[in-house]
């Protein structure tokens, strides 16, 4: 099992939590919560994956995601062999769920 961490600059605070997906064969879960770092706006991502040796793929997927998303969030990803497309989908779903929670 591999444990990866990534940090990205952010422009706005995230105020709600979101949980999407399940850890299972070929899938993953994303847990999104407001950033704990109050001094600077940043997004902190922790990836726990059952597949070793793909940190460059994770970095590429997350780099692409954070070119569009600017929220200061704590994101935990628990992976069980998801494809990059599934990762991108789950991240988008987590953002949508958090934004809908803000509107409620």
UniProtKB/TrEMBL annotation:
<dbReference type="InterPro" id="IPR023439">
    <property type="entry name" value="Mal_deCO2ase/Cit_lyase_ACP"/>
</dbReference>
<dbReference type="InterPro" id="IPR009662">
    <property type="entry name" value="Malonate_deCO2ase_dsu"/>
</dbReference>
<protein>
    <recommendedName>
        <fullName>Malonate decarboxylase acyl carrier protein</fullName>
    </recommendedName>
</protein>
<keyword id="KW-0963">Cytoplasm</keyword>
<dbReference type="GO" id="GO:0005737">
    <property type="term" value="C:cytoplasm"/>
</dbReference>
<keyword id="KW-0597">Phosphoprotein</keyword>
<feature type="modified residue" description="O-(phosphoribosyl dephospho-coenzyme A)serine">
    <location>
        <position position="25"/>
    </location>
</feature>
<dbReference type="Pfam" id="PF06857">
    <property type="entry name" value="ACP"/>
</dbReference>
